[in-house]
From TrEMBL:
The lineage of its organism: Bacteria, Pseudomonadati, Pseudomonadota, Gammaproteobacteria, Oceanospirillales. It is a multi-pass membrane protein. Keywords: Cell membrane, Membrane, Transmembrane, Transmembrane helix, Transport. Pfam families: BPD_transp_1 (PF00528), OppC_N (PF12911). The chain crosses the membrane at residues 36-58, 110-135, 147-169, 175-193, 231-252, 287-308. It is found in: Cell membrane. Belongs to the binding-protein-dependent transport system permease family. Residues 108-308 form the ABC transmembrane type-1 domain. InterPro entries: BP-dependent_transpt_permease, MetI-like, MetI-like_sf, OppC_N. PANTHER family: ABC TRANSPORTER PERMEASE PROTEIN, OLIGOPEPTIDE TRANSPORT SYSTEM PERMEASE PROTEIN APPC. SUPFAM superfamilies: MetI-like. This is ABC transporter permease. Gene3D superfamilies: MetI-like. It comes from Allohahella marinimesophila.
Amino acid sequence: MTDTPNIVPMVLPDKASKLKQFRESHFWHRFRQDKVAIVSFTMLLVLIILSVGAGLFAPYDPYDLSQIDILDSELPPVWIENDDNDGRFLLGTDAQGRDLFSTILYGMRISLTIGLFAVLLQAIIGIVIGLLAGYYGGRLDSLLMRFADVQLSFSTLMVAIIVLAVFQAAFGAELYQQLALIMLIVVIGIAEWPQYARTIRASVLAEKNKEYVEAAQVIGLSSRRIMFRHILPNTLSPILVISTVQVANAIIAEASLSFLGLGMPVSQPSLGSLISSGFDYIFSGSWWITIIPGIALVVLVLVMNLLGDWLRDVLNPRLYKG
């Protein structure tokens, strides 16, 4: 009779242990101590849930013409006494008779979509260029960074205004309205990539001479694998901080372009286009059409910037105050 060898089962970390590690981490400890971060994160989470689930939380659909009545236009919010105010619209209505609360939720979803995808595009471009410039150095580094300097000499709005205005003039306003979302994402994304490229380049210059990179080179790993599998994960902290701030900047850029008439069309309202469409009525007494979406935009951008500042402090040990 042969002895059966003892088989030691492999123990995999369960979700409970991972949750315990997270709750004991420095990140969670700092988050619980910072009331501003807690409030900002809670407000941002609520805004994201409301905007993503706009179809569930909005009492009306601003895209459904059967739910819009022009006779309901410019009705004030429920807290303003008015003979025409029947209490159906919490924040009032806009000039087209759409429920402002519902339109803000749908508009915030469009603004967040533009902000997130524009930042994703600029992050991809900036990370690739920053890795190449920092890792290879030399003439390639000089060429790419001079190109970034030229890009930085033009503001985002200047580049976007030129490109979008030329597109409208060349292909017509009707085609532009159909492609407005994609155009805004591409233009804002391309205009802001140098922010990522410069940050990643500086991090790569600090990492590429360390022992783990030299060891990877000695065993014959390809440059692409070293850059993306070894160096890039060690540069994620500044990327997270930049991304938080850049999403807010992209939303502001979209709102500015919409206010200038180069953003989302009125039929597909973003927060910026809502502010723009209501600006003509602000002096006629219908101030809520512009002011309330403006407040929503300010709150959204503010909580993102506050979270970005908190992430910067937490992920930078030099700023830790104990």
